[in-house]
Fold each of these.
Amino acid sequence: MDRSAHSAIETILRDELTRGDLALSGVAPVLTHMLSGSGGSLVSEALVARLRGILGHIAHQLLASRDTEYAASDADRFTDFLASDGAVLSHCYAMAMEGYLTERLEAKAALDPVLTPLLQELIASTNAEVAELAMTTLAAQSRFVQSSKRMEMPLRELPADMFHHLLQLWIHAQNSHGDTSGEAGLKDSLAALRSDYDEGATRAGLLARLVSALRGGVRAALSLEHAGLALFTTALNVLTKQPRELAVLSCHPRQSARLALSLRAAGLIEDEIEQQFTILHPEKKLPRGFDDLLPDRAQTMISQADARADAPANAQKAE
């Protein structure tokens, strides 16, 4: 393929990736608007209900950690406070999306949300450590599916950076009242929350460890039908160095360019990528000549897009 054809393919994908990222950047204000009860059409009501439930569950867990009674109005106010934080909102949105997609894939493609063929193989591994890790991951995935149906998010399942970020928000919210009489109780609740947290035991941590344990066989996790959504998105996260939240969101129809580039960057060829699209988005087609796009170039395009998206946030932090 000549250089002009290469350029045309990259332009198509870059434009689609840019549109997808612009859509993502608009998610937070739309969600904030819908969570306030004003309604809207860009994000489904079902997804907003999941998100509201997750935020409320997190708020209740933090309030309950003080071991004192609190009013429903306090929980509502704290839920709104959490929803105003971009990092918390983005993570919870991605988890709500993962729960929604997991259920959708089970209904539309008969993909088991917990015991996938790849997980069964790993549980039967002759490597005792891998088999034990797979069993522990199975239990964690089962808990996630049940929590998702209840629209919950246990604090102990949060990634480490999000867990510690939430504790900082909790401290800020408590200190903002200006009442120092409860400082001892706050310290006790923080100590209890931290002692109950183990990053290695979180579902995200277990999935990452299991994908790493696949070593040269990691490509097996890039088959949705074989691995399931949880391992699939974790493999994308590990292989392309994207945040796992973005790997999850790439499975949304409006993020098909990011998904295609991610799978190419991970080493899949056109036919293998189209197999994943058949499961997720059968109406989507790859541009002609897509296979001529080298994996390294696909990775560069993703990295450049993520750098552009991070630039405004980093500029705000600098200010």
Amino acid sequence: MITSYEELLKFCPNINPKIKKVIDKYGILVTEHYLSLIDLKNPKDPLFKAVIPSISELKINKWELSDPIGDNSSEFKTQKTKMLIHRYPDRVLLLTTNKCAGNCRYCFRKEKVFNNEETIFNTKELEKSLNYIQKTKQLKEVILSGGDPLYMPRKDLYKTLNFIKEKCKHIKTIRIHTRAPIYNPNIITDELSEFLNNFNKKIPLTIITHIIHPKEICDKFITSINKIKCIKLNQNPILKGINDSTECLINLSYELLKAGILPHYLHILDKAKGISHFKVSIKKAQDIVYKMQQQISGHLVPKLILDQPNGYGKVWLNKSFIEKSKIVNGKYEMKIKSTHSNKIALYKED
């Protein structure tokens, strides 16, 4: 495991000494399991780039934001407690902890997650958040995020889910976002899987993994994640030098399917501080997803998503197959490109 600059030197003796400044600011955490997946002799290895600090993190652009998706939006007043974000009418985001199983260098909440002070993550704030969920009857979904919910103290995780099950009958589904099993497959114990599987019988549960590259999916991970019997989807950012190619993302989709997980969202990188070296343009991302649509089945193609700054929410950035369209006598006439070739056909709405 790597948790300090000194430990990093043991694995990467030729690392740039300036990396110590990055670690002092943002920390480092690489588990033994994840280390076994990385080619540490190759700085271009995609998993190396994902977890080993870069001096590029010290470059802060003027357009980068401490709150890149508007969690604390003053315009929409979405932060209802220090741990609870209510942006969309039917669902809330519960920030369960600032602890994670590993430090992703591209994390959009890196300033909050890498901060060791847990001043906002406490019993009082959790109870306030749960009370808000209980009294807000329009809610249908609770999303557990963080940090990583599976690094929340187990007693608090169980308490949270039991409270929702017993006291919040208006909640129809729970979502848990996690990368913990990728960093440490042993995090999903028999006790945890039994609890979640029993919970899923009462309230439908969805696990959202954040797998960024096919190399992260190994037999240990597959065994671990499949202990939990529920819907599983993947959301991940598109990252320069890590997964920004059609071939890589197609391979990722097939590896996800082997693990019983469906691709869901592919995110444009948020405008967080110190991560712009991972940025992929919207046009390039659209082109990659468009090529994916031409080469693999639709259920294996993730939706390309932009989470807008200042709390305006997610938008779908699909690159349409429609070349031209017009309305004639109230009905569409469209020139549509084939999904499996570059031929264009005219479609007239009856």
